[in-house]
Design brief:
- The protein is mainly alpha-helical.
- Helix content is about 75%, strand content about 0%.
- The protein is built from 23 helices and two strands.
- It has helices spanning about 1-15, 20-45, 50-55, 60-90, 95-110, 115-145, 150-170, 175-195, 200-215, 240-255, 260, 270-290, 290-305, 315-320, 350-360, 365-400, 405-430, 435-450, 450-460, 465-490, 505-520, 525-535, 540-550; strands at about 325-330, 345.
- The chain has a two-stranded antiparallel sheet with strand order 1-2.
- Helix 2 (about 20-45) runs parallel beside helix 10 (about 240-255) and helix 5 packs across helix 16.
- It is globular.
- The two termini are about 45 Å apart.
């Protein structure tokens, strides 16, 4: 859902800065291919907590792994359920808060009937739908505008047209008047917030209104006559720090998030696990290489199809998408004409889903995009639900609480937790904590900080021991979670770092703590160290000789 539904919208709003998502998630698969994927597959553990329990001995590391996996996966799951709710609310016309629960039927149908292998094959079918539906709208738009069916080669022209449109909009007197009204409203809200007589409840409402008014009062499309083109400018200072920090967090999070490596356990061999990573990168490339083009065409559609139209004759898509709560059109100046400042974006997640209708494409294209969005969200939600349910039934119940539990009993517990987890995730999704791509970034920061150091050190440094791994995982997760909550809800700021990049503090700390504590405490036994060495070699006679020789 983050890649399909949310990423192009983020690029459309943030411009160059949004490319951190493209680079981070793509780079994460390279890290997975080089440092983790094949070795975890050769180790033979079915889950990350399984690996932690076997590599570091006892249940302590396993329990920390289970907690971290559930926390990361649940955060990630909320984002997928949000995507399902958006599409269902548009399809059926239900309120978003109802749509998330209706959409769960599809998620549970895919998850309850099979395990990780069935989910993997389901994802193959869902990807075919996903990539087809993602490419069709931009290919059609590219052909309509430039007679060029390759949007990735045409969107440079669209960016030039967008800059010209933004400049014309900025110079429009009515646009300036509308933004002045928003500016006055923001100032009035600010004054009321500072008034001691204003109640706390009213201040909360006024703060939200002030934020919206301030956003709408700013120069449209992040451009004006003095700063035209800033949308494409490479960020500097704190902007570049956040760009690099987010890219880093998404890379390590991709490699460490439980459902990603778990998918490689469904391959028959270590060699095929490597091949699987390679093909994954190719299929990811198809989507990510198209996202910037999608963002550019979406902005063009808003500029040419919405701005300047009459309020009394708003396109049907405005009404049809209102139940999803992604945007609103408000005639602020009362002139009966839609200005860009009248288009209130509550969530950039509307971009991919609504662009076909905004551009006036046939409804069959919209239906195709809806199907692709559902496929994207459902395929990821399936794996996440299984991760959480397996973490409880396999890693916690079977491995720690009741090792004598029968297979039927374990499967029953898994199915129960699938349903319970899905319902809780749907309920939390109704609070709309952030846009989908931000929710996913939180999950990746948590996963990177908690798992990546312990996994990499556990495979590549045989001196890593249980005490070091436990201390490193707890320290990394705690610091990341502390900054994430503090920066998102309490105004905390370390060097201006954004909430989505919280893992940039926890992950280095995790590596340092593992290294220091492992050196200060006894080394693992020889059998464990030999196991670590053997995981890095193919299972052949020559490899055995190398291991016996102490290499």
């Amino acid at each position: 859902a983050a890649s399909f539904i949310s990423m192009a919208g983020t690029l459309s709003v943030q411009g160059f800065s949004g490319l951190a998502y493209v680079m981070g998630w793509t780079g994460g698969y390279l890290l997975l291919a080089v440092f983790l994927g094949p070795y975890l597959r050769q180790f033979g553990a079915y889950t990350i907590p399984d690996f932690l329990g076997a590599r570091y001995g006892g249940n302590a590391a396993r329990l920390v792994g289970v907690f971290s996996a559930i926390l990361c996966s649940f955060t990630y799951l909320i984002a997928q359920v949000t995507g399902v709710g958006l599409i269902v609310s548009r399809f059926i016309g239900l309120d978003f808060n109802v749509g998330v629960f209706v959409g769960l039927i599809g998620v549970l149908f895919c998850s309850v009937l099979g395990g990780m292998r069935s989910v993997t094959w389901t994802q193959v079918a869902q990807y075919i739908i996903l990539i087809t539906s993602y490419l069709v709208p931009v290919v059609v738009l590219s052909w309509q505008l430039f007679s060029n069916p390759i949007p990735q080669l045409a969107y440079g022209k669209v960016l030039q047209l967008n800059n010209q449109s933004a400049l014309a909009i900025t110079r429009d007197p009515q646009e300036k008047a509308t933004r002045e009204i928003w500016k006055a409203e923001a100032a009035a809200a600010d004054a009321k917030i500072k008034d001691p007589a204003t109640s706390a409840e009213e201040k909360t409402k006024l703060t939200a209104a002030q934020k919206t008014a301030t956003t709408q009062a700013k120069a449209p499309a992040a451009s004006d006559e003095a700063t035209i083109g800033n949308y494409l400018t490479v960020p500097k200072g704190k902007g570049m720090w956040n760009f690099l920090a987010l890219t880093f967090c998404l890379m390590v999070g991709t490699a460490g998030l439980e459902p990603t490596p778990a998918g490689y356990y469904t391959t028959p061999s270590v060699r095929e696990a490597r091949t699987s990573v390679g093909w994954s990168l190719f299929f990811i490339f198809l989507l990510y290489f198209t996202a910037p083009a999608y963002a550019a065409f979406a902005r063009f559609s808003v500029y040419t199809k919405l701005v300047g139209s009459k309020i009394a004759d708003l396109p049907s898509w405005v009404t049809l998408w209102k139940p999803a709560g992604l945007f609103d059109v408000i005639d602020k100046a009362g002139d009966g004409i839609v200005q860009l400042a009248d288009f209130v974006i509550k969530s950039s997640d509307f971009v991919v889903l609504a662009t076909p209708e905004i551009a006036g494409l046939p409804f069959v294209v919209t239906g195709l995009v809806m199907a692709g969005g559902l496929a994207a969200a459902l395929s990821t939600a399936d794996g996440l639900l299984l991760t959480i349910a397996n973490g409880i039934s396999h890693d916690l119940y079977y491995k720690v609480i009741n090792p004598q539990a029968t297979l039927v009993r374990r499967l029953t517990i898994t199915k129960i937790f699938l349903i319970v987890t899905a319902l809780i995730a749907a309920y939390v999704a109704t609070f709309r904590l952030a846009i989908i791509v931000e929710l996913v970034a939180w999950a990746f920061s948590l996963a990177g900080a908690s798992f990546f150091p312990a996994l990499v050190m556990g495979i590549w440094w045989k001196r890593t021991n249980k005490a070091g791994a436990l201390a490193g995982m707890v320290a990394g997760l705690a610091v990341t979670l502390f900054y994430m909550i503090g920066s998102r809800f309490y105004g905390m700021s370390w060097w201006g770092t954004a909430t989505v990049a919280s893992g940039v503090f926890g992950l280095p700390l995790g590596f340092i703590v593992i290294w220091v504590v492992s050196l200060l405490t006894p080394a693992p036994d020889k059998a464990t160290q030999d196991l670590v060495v053997s995981v890095r070699y193919p299972k052949t006679g020559s490899a055995s000789a190398a291991i016996n020789a102490g290499h």
